[in-house]
Amino acid sequence: MRNQPKYNFYKNTTYALKGFKDLIGTETSFKIELIIVILLIPTLFIIDANLTNKILMFTSLMGMLIAETINSAIERVVDLVTLEHNEMAGRAKDVGSSIVFLSIIVFVTTWSLILINLL
């Protein structure tokens, strides 16, 4: 049986914001990607793209942050289990990195195709 308290919106939101704050404070990659997001969000209001394309652009942009969050969680769990070099631990971290890499490919491809189409 899991040791989990009953659902509480306030507490769960507090936990999420605590995790977000921790990511900003400790993860350089997350900070870089967050800056990219903050700089590009205004672009969605400026460009003359249809709503569907803007939603795709926003989703791909946020997907990058989501992927980095997942990768950070994987890395922390692996480090919790062992700090020694372990092939499986390294492979788990590599897979987490590939999640981020693929999300960046989706982001760059989506934005590039939509912006090129607007020219």
Main attributes of the structure:
119 residues; 0% strand; mainly alpha; Helix Hairpins; 84% helix
- Form type: globular
How large is the count of helical segments? 4
Biggest sheet overview: none
Portion of residues in beta strands equals under 5%
Number of domains: 1
N-to-C CA distance: 57 Å
DSSP helix fraction:
over 70%
Radius of gyration: 18 Å
SSE topology string: HHHH
Structural category is: mainly alpha
- The CATH first-level class comes to Mainly Alpha
> Uncertain spans, ≥5 residues at pLDDT below 50?
none
Q: Let me know the average pLDDT.
A: 94
Oligomeric state of shown chains: single chain
CATH topology term? Helix Hairpins
Please give the CATH architecture.
Answer: Orthogonal Bundle
Number of strands: 0
